Amino acid sequence: MGGVGKTTLLQHIRNELLQRPDICDHVWWVTVSQDFSINRLRNLIAKHLHLDLSSEDDDLHRAAKLLEGLRKKQKWILILDDLWNNFELYEVGIPIPLKGCKLILTTRSRMVCDQIDCQHKIKVKPLLEGESWTLFKENLRRHMALSDEVKGIAKAVARECAGLPLGIITVAGSLRGVDDPHQWRNTLKKLKDSGTGDMKVFKLLRFSYDRLDDLALQKCLQYCALFPEDHLIEREELIGYLIDEGIIKGMGRRQDAFDEGHTMLNKLQNVCLLESDKTEDGGKCVKMHDLIRDMAIQIMQEMYQVIVKPGAKLEELPNVEYWTENLKIVSLMRNSFEEILPSHSPMCPNLSTLFLRDNRELRLIADSFFKEFRGLKVLDLSKTNIKKLPESISDLVSLTALLLTDCQMLRDVPSLKKLMALKRLDLFDTKLREMPQGMECLTNLRCLRMNACCEKEFPSGVLPKLSRLQVLALDVFLITLKGKEVGSLRNLETLECNFEGLSDFVEYLRSWNGIRSLSTCKILVGTTDTVDWEYADCFPSKTVFLGNLSINRDIDFLVKFLNGIQGLYCECIDARSLCDVLSLESATELEHIEIRDCNCMESLVSSSWFCFASPPLPSHNGMFSRLKELCCVGCNSMEKLFLLELLSYLVNLEVIYAD
Prior knowledge:
CATH architecture of the domain at 307-453: Alpha-Beta Horseshoe
Shape: globular
Largest sheet: 16 strands, parallel
Pfam family, one: NB-ARC
Domain NB-ARC: 1-139
Helix content: 25-40%
CATH superfamily of the domain at 307-453: Ribonuclease Inhibitor
Distance between the termini: 61 Å
GO molecular function: ADP binding; ATP binding
Domain Disease resistance protein winged helix: 226-296
Number of strands: 24
Keywords: ATP-binding, Leucine-rich repeat, Nucleotide-binding, Plant defense, Repeat
């Protein structure tokens, strides 16, 4: 049965094992899910061993390599969670017998246990009545005792959850803060006819969904179900979609919309309909229990026509009879399509959302495919191998988001002139031959991300027409911009770009409020031989990179313009100290400074500055008060890194690297 606590129980066991190196050397957790395949399972296990199986010619050799890798390890425990299919251990590459090692799995099927020949089978039973009431009370999170009347009803509500932890947690979460006995009795009445088994769990979850009493929250939960089962959904990515769809309404500033999105996700976590998680690199994510996902899909199917088959290993699109005039949402991400042929020309005028992302084998989409998608608003083709975007894209006049991130084979995009409703255009990590035509017509655009085309400079005259831009993220190493044009974008909150020289940068800084008005920025002035995108991501969210520049002190570039930055990188510039680059009195937010191959630099701060500048007294929020990391490499004229007078300002300095 689902929702009885198998995964949670095993998570506790894993955490205990991780604290007991005397029991085993390695504990590996693999979530299998319904989109099971031998190859996928093998790759997931190999990832824990840092094995690359892609170089092997066939399944037999891949299994042999994994087998060898597992045998080299000693005293390991492999946990396979949410297994739906049986398989032969040798086909994957799991050694038989498991000498000194253990394989633990969870499944809803007794038959799977029998067919895999598990030595010990443990049936996880529902909680007893007393245990159920304890768990229910914990998830109510009450600071004050319930009245006797409400307590009696609450115990009855807990009993109706049939000892199923998932149901108990979600129902209790939805009733936090409720004191009115009428509401409690109404809840009890709704739960009494909720069936048994998985139907019981569904009814309990549906009750928690209905209790949200907020259409935007309900739509947000439904949207999470468009991703594959057990998928870690990155918060920022999800909120971007919710803005595209209008689930989060326009709020002026994009940061305000993201704050609203995070608040919505927190609410869904607080009522236990979403779980918090993290990616391997620490990125914040949410995850859905598979039963909650099934419920959300069922609700969508009741409301409108949808095709939701992400991660279903489909090699062809669903048959034409599924593509009806009333079709509203299609999610076919992470499948195995290679082509969408002219024979597939569906008429779906009401289709608003189409996800074809993560289909790495998709190389061709026929022009006819999009011709009758007049109502399409969100189109995501990211992480596909298409080389050319169909011409019919040009006629999708309702489109608000066109997402082509990481389409590394993409060379051609048709004219975007008619797409005047477009608010988000993502062409990052593509290989476009030229800038798309009609960019100047996208006057509603809020977010533009793209990397280098053949043009090394962004076409003149386009940016001032995109006056509503809030996010402008261009390849900081390959596309240069004019400072005056960037300065005309008064709504910018995020800026990632390259200015060819100091004159353009100063022109931008002198416009309006410059860097101070930005929430995040990565700005390269000049060129750099050392920094790439991966390295740039290690710097704080507001960083300026200065490379291969001659600092002209006559234009007074420094004194006020670099206020508010958190990271500063200097490479091959002729400054004698940081006094030539920024106003030290205002360097209150700097966290990271890196100086490379600046052969004219003699010290971090010149001694003359202390003599003439009347430096402020050290304080917890003053000059250099937030500086944590300082790196100085290859500066041959550097005689003193710090003057003695500077030390009292460096109250938070953690890392110094000098070479």
